[in-house]
Amino acid sequence: MPGYALALHGGAGTILREEMNEELEKAYLHALEEALNVGYAILERGGSAIDAVTQCCVVLEDNVLFNAGKGSVFTNSGTHEMDACIMDGNSLRAGAVTCVHGIRNPILLAAEIMQHSEHVFLSGKGAVDFALSRGIATVPEDYFFTQFRYDQWMSARDQQGTFLDHNSQAKGNAIPNKKFGTVGVVARDISGNIAASTSTGGMTNKNYNRIGDTPVIGSGTYANNKTCAISCTGHGEIFLLAVAAYDVSCLMEYRDYSLQQAMDLVVNTKLVQMKGEGGMIGVDADGNISMQFNSLGMYRAARNNEGYHEVAIYK
């Protein structure tokens, strides 16, 4: 009887060992391990996959190293617009939120939408109004301020560009390696249910309320007990066009691919052909885990009840 398993990511991109100082590398590895332990502990005591991916994602959102929640990047107007999504593979219910300000943990708002509204996807002021009505924690704008994110924003404005947070073009002066990104979690619980969550601050210097793949069901996030749970990270526009997360599920359901085979085809063939850099994590209905990326690195961690335990950064 398959047991329980959890995997998480903290973004993918041009992440090179030679650009990472020892202190920063240790900080990332510790952050990944800390989040992994929180999610895994929930599964270990018989908790649900939904609770595990929610609480694990909260830990990542609260860590300034990652581009989600507290560590979110600056928009063109100097604010922070955050997106998040969660999906339950058992019920196929989901909750998603986009372009929200002042929400401490967007993933908690996404979960609240899934569990306590008749809707799936809320945005902007309406999403914040719903958050206030449900007692979701809000914080002042300066909660999201960090100097290295501000430096990245200034660099992007000077170059008149919009950059992926982990892209080598998103240069700043505070930390030598500026490859931070979307966070995500997938899990299978002891009851055989699977779930996925994803959260992001988007692209540095983004304008016009730009939305990437993270909150879009099937593109950045998807879960179905029949197949798999997937969370993506990378160039959101391409992942949107590829419907990347759902494509993995479809390959498994309709062509009988394994999780590993389906993710390999999507990440290393389809997305590469579309010039989409990034990766994804997945867990299938049997508890198998896969973490694949076509970039030079991906912050990632995984653990299951059979002794597998991995925390890694580089290719």
From TrEMBL:
Q: Cite the CDD domains for this sequence.
A: Asparaginase_2
Q: Which GO terms describe its biological process?
A: proteolysis
Q: Which InterPro entries match?
A: Ntn_hydrolases_N (IPR029055), Peptidase_T2 (IPR000246)
- Site note Cleavage, residues: G181, T182
Q: What name does UniProt use for this protein?
A: Isoaspartyl peptidase
One GO MF term, please?
peptidase activity
Q: Report if keyword Transport is assigned.
A: no
Alphabetically list the UniProt keywords.
Autocatalytic cleavage, Hydrolase, Protease
Catalytic residues at: T182
Keyword Protease on this protein? yes
**Organism of derivation:** Flavisolibacter ginsengisoli DSM 18119
Extract the Pfam families matched here.
Asparaginase_2
Q: Where does substrate bind?
A: R210, I211, G212, D213, T233, G234, H235, G236
